[in-house]
Amino acid sequence: MAGSEWPAVVEADLPHGYVVTSSGRVSGVHEAGDVFKEAPFDDEERLAMDNVLTEATRATKVRFTVYIGDLGQDPTAGADALFPHMPESERSVLIAVAPNEKAVEVRSGRAIADRANGHVCQLGLTAASSSFRQGQLIDGLVSAVRVMAAAIGR
Known about the structure:
The chain is of the alpha+beta class. It has helices spanning 43-60, 75-82, 118-133, 137-153; strands at 18-20, 26-28, 63-68, 92-98, 103-108.
């Protein structure tokens, strides 16, 4: 969309803790102790994601991380920039999803590149694709992590 087609955001009308960034994006903070009014995922989805990440990490000794959010105009470059800042990036797998762009990027650290190679990453994405097409983001990510962990663990 051209800039004139976007609705105007008046920074003074935003809730406490929200600002309009220099790129025009609205960014907000969640105050410690406050309950999210509109959490993006329900308790069951968050629990499923937490469980599969914990199980995969324990089974493979590879740290699995999922990032859901904006990766910028170039999702590949966004994931490349994000990955080095992940905990234990040398021994981890990052699955980065930009839902609005319908982009998924997977990165693996140097120390595990032989185990979490391109083939393993593609298996994970293939496992997720059916759920993604049905609009089930968390189900797809759970499937991807399970398949990748099984392939890495072999």
